[in-house]
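Dear colleagues,

As part of the handover before I leave the project, I'm documenting each prediction I ran so the next person doesn't have to rerun anything. This entry is a single chain, and its sequence is reproduced below.
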Amino acid sequence: MQHLVVFFDHRLHDLVPWCEFIRELGPLLAESETGEFIGDDMAIDGGDCEAVFKGPDAKALLDFLLPRLQSLPFPNNPSTRIELVYGELESVAPRKSFALTT
């Protein structure tokens, strides 16, 4: 299994739109057989977030998620980073990290 991790900063008022985004995204990911949302570590009072997705192909996850992430009013800021993990998260699997650009 491969993974895609999104690291971004958010504000308190971004919580509801993010939760709605994830709720709507779940069935789309399942239907496309691209992968699934694993979870996030999002501070409820604003700050940083780490959102994790998994699927059979990290690049396919990126292709599926990128336009959807870019459509959000956040996390489109210069500090947002995406990491592709070509294997298990807790392993020495090859990784590719880059900034999310709109």
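The first strand starts at residue 2 and ends at 10. The two ends are 28 Å apart (CA to CA).

All the best with the project,
I.
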